[in-house]
Specification:
- It contains five helices and twelve strands.
- The strands form two sheets. It has a six-stranded mixed beta sheet with strand order 3-4-2-1-12-11. A six-stranded mixed beta sheet has the order 5-6-7-8-10-9, with helices on one face.
- It has one domain: Endonuclease/exonuclease/phosphatase (Deoxyribonuclease I, Chain A, 4-Layer Sandwich).
- Helices cover 20% and strands 32% of the residues.
- The longest helix is centred in the middle third of the chain and has 16 residues, at 130-145.
- By secondary structure, the chain is of the alpha+beta class.
- This is Endonuclease/exonuclease/phosphatase family metal-dependent hydrolase.
- One of its GO terms (molecular function) is endonuclease activity.
- Keywords: Endonuclease, Exonuclease, Hydrolase, Nuclease.
- It holds the Pfam family Exo_endo_phos.
Length: 231
């Protein structure tokens, strides 16, 4: 049994308009997931530096970032990043290039947990346009199907899909099961399920929800979502 989480951390700028990375980290520690997919984890301009620095993670958490090696000071790819526990082993990782009009991407890693379980994890932040979201979903699905090695797969991220069942949700649902996480946006008054967790058919989602704590309501405009999964 593993616990995963997805969080659009909004570069650690909270609903109080203050950038406080330590508050983001506190929310992640509250959830206590084994693997976390982050969106908007890097600053948008300049060197696109990671908001959660290596020092902050190593000294104040049980997490380490998956090293995608895209930019020297970035944690991920187009703001997408993955965190795993320090006792996990990253077997392989890569950035997935997506068709887009604006900078968009996804990240993928094969992770061996301390228990010995190996899972493939994909983190994503899809487009605001429904047409481009469907193209991006198709690109991710095709990339996974073409992979030489196949592992039980978990997909997480901010899909930016406001509809309940159509669009890219229908595309993903043909291959993956959705966790019933609940509404995560806006953090102060959740009205939409923009953030999603999906799992391949050989996995069983046993529980899921939205992490709605006092810190989470102010740390970002999204609430983090989580799921427990039986491998």
């Amino acid at each position: 049994m593993i616990k995963v989480a997805s969080y659009n951390m909004r570069k650690s700028i909270g609903t109080d308009r203050r950038r406080r990375p330590e508050r983001t980290l506190q929310v992640l520690c509250e959830i206590g997931a084994d693997i976390v997919a982050l969106q908007e984890a890097d600053r948008r301009f300049g060197e696109r530096s990671a908001v959660l620095t290596q020092h902050l993670l190593s000294e104040h958490s049980d997490y380490k970032p998956v090293p995608f090696g895209t930019k020297a000071r970035s944690m991920g790819w187009h703001g997408n990043a993955l965190l795993v526990r320090k006792d996990a082993t990253v077997l392989d990782c890569e950035a997935i290039h997506l068709p887009a009009l604006e900078p968009r991407g996804a990240v993928m890693a094969d992770v061996r947990l301390a228990s010995g379980t190996v899972v493939r994890v994909v983190g994503m932040h899809l487009d605001l346009s429904g047409l481009w979201r469907r193209r991006q979903a198709h690109a991710i699905i095709t990339h996974l199907q073409a992979s030489t090695h196949q592992y039980p797969t978990i997909l997480m991220g901010d899909l930016n899909e406001w509809s309940a069942q159509s669009g890219c949700l229908r595309d993903f649902a043909s291959h993956y099961a959705f966790a019933a996480t609940g509404k995560s946006f806006h953090a102060r008054r959740p009205m939409a399920r923009l953030d999603r967790i999906m799992a391949s058919r050989e996995l069983t989602i046993t529980d899921a929800g939205v992490h709605d704590s006092l810190q989470a309501r102010t740390a970002s405009d999204h609430l983090p979502i989580w799921a427990t999964i039986k491998v």
